[in-house]
Amino acid sequence: MTRDAVLAAKRIVVKVGSSSVSGDNAGQIEPLVDALVATYRRGVEVVLVSSGAIASALPILNLGGRPQDLATQQAAAAVGQNILMWRYQTSLDRYSILAGQILLTAGDLENPTHRSNAQRAMERLLDLRVLPIVNENDTVATQEIRFGDNDRLAALVSELVGADLLVLLSDVDALYTRPPSEPGARPIPEVPFDDDLSGVELGPIGAAGVGTGGAGTKIAAAKHAAAAGIPVLLTSTANVAVALAGEETGTWFNARA
What we know:
The chain is of the alpha/beta class. It is built from ten helices and eight strands. The chain is globular, with a radius of gyration of 17 Å.
């Protein structure tokens, strides 16, 4: 069954996590870009929220895992953001499409002037048919002012730009009743707006160990966007093309009526 709301959406925010676009999965950037461009060519305005700056820097800086101290996280973000944007732009060059980088902190979206500036910049980039790529500004963010994860950032950006749809991508193809590796886990195809999902058992943060989110942060982000009137589709990065084509996949969170 086609999700009519996907095909009807004129402005879509897509969020992808660190483990989907770094390390052994860096090759997923090209099919992700293919799917975004196919959507763009339907006349849809697309905003990408992409994690992966710190994770992209780990092998370059010979770091064995995500650093624990703030200074090294900030340094890795400075190096990795450059690598991440280069990978996206190199892939977009195949279609002669430009990317525009937007780095935000939680404080930016709480400050009315900064929020207005970010909104205006994104609107103009979309007018120019540039693909805005948004990430948390990890180089200057501190623990006290962090979004905590880019799922929340994506929900806030969706609200900021008045998106018609938010697509949250991860390593898992849907929300399950319990961690999908456990016996008896069943995918949840649709979540009514007023469903608190109290019966869902959540597992730990992804096994890759390079991100900061998990099923819990995605549910919270989906609930935030849905409360703002924006439906949310949660699926895997591998399924992004079928998701954006409006085919049945993942978990659909219904928005407030």
